[in-house]
Amino acid sequence: MNAENMSPTEVMRRLAEAEHLIPQRDSNFYHSVKQQYLKKGISEKQLFWMRRLLTIHVLALESASPIPNEAQLSREQKPKISSWEQWNLKTLQDKIQQARAAGLKYPKIKLICDSPECGHREYQIYWSEYFGVTSVKLGTEFIFSILESGNLKPAARYAKLTPESEQKLIPHLSFLQTFNNDPTEGAKVQGRLTGACCFCQHELSTDESLSAGYGPVCAEHFGLPWGERTGASKEKEILLSNLDAGDDSIPF
Ligand SMILES: [Zn+2]
User: Fold this and answer.
1) 28 vs 198, more confident
2) DSSP conformation class of 228
């Protein structure tokens, strides 16, 4: 069975049946797309990634042959960056702008990708005073800027992608897109990985910051949930407010 021939409904149904097979690094991305699918459907690009997840993590297990890894998949099956416009990092752009508005002169988000595909590289999403845009470095190399719209403007050397440079960049862009799609969860994963806050690089020292992946100051600067609005306390709050609402609505 080939994911390319399946309808979007079939792709999402097969993934939903096999969610446990999706590795953690792809899980957040999958769930955010799934939620959108349930609400309003998904785009061609998202469908492309869902087909890829299905092929790599689910269908591969069903075939009798050994499980192919990324490198073993033919180039045809690998995703293509036919255009830089396929990616959008608007949330990251917004977070950097929000931090500047909150008074940080040089806001920066430092991320590590814990995947062999990415080669455990470090990313920096930072405000470039010189160019007046949010920019992204891979290691020490400037790769692209993020425009107001969230679209990417590549460095000159990546403006025209060769098949080789495409293949090299896809895992990195995919990682950044996943972080962008859920920065709260992404920061938590980064915190677990490095023991430090990805926004200010300070060591995480309290129970609250260890569980969130950042502290109250960065939460405020970057507009992230904190305290009452996170995790168990949020659920408790919703539960209590529902109970209150329930009491009010009893008609006698
Ligand atoms: Zn911090």
Assistant:
1) 198
2) G
Return d(Cα 22, Cα 35) in angstroms, integer.
Answer: 16
- How close is the Cα of 199 to the center of ligand 1, in Å? 5
Query: How many angstroms is it from 220 CA to the middle of ligand 1?
Result: 10
Taking the centre of ligand 1 as the mean of its atom positions, its distance from the CA of residue 198, in whole angstroms, is 6
Helices (H), the chain: 8-17, 24-40, 44-53, 60-62, 90-101, 156-159, 163-181, 183-194, 207-212, 216-222, 231-249
Q: Who's near 133: CB < 8 A, 6+ residues apart?
A: 145, 146, 147, 153
155 class by beta-carbon count within 10 Å (0-12 exposed, 13-18 middle, 19+ buried): middle
* Ligand 1 centre distance from Cα of residue 7 (Å): 43
Determine the distance separating the centroid of ligand 1 and the alpha carbon of 208, expressed in angstroms.
Answer: 12
| pLDDT band at 191; cut points 50, 70, 90 | very high
- CA of 119 from ligand 1 middle (Å) equals 25
pLDDT digits (tens, 9 = 90+) for 75-133: 444 455 557 888 999 999 999 999 999 999 999 999 999 888 888 899 999 999 888 99
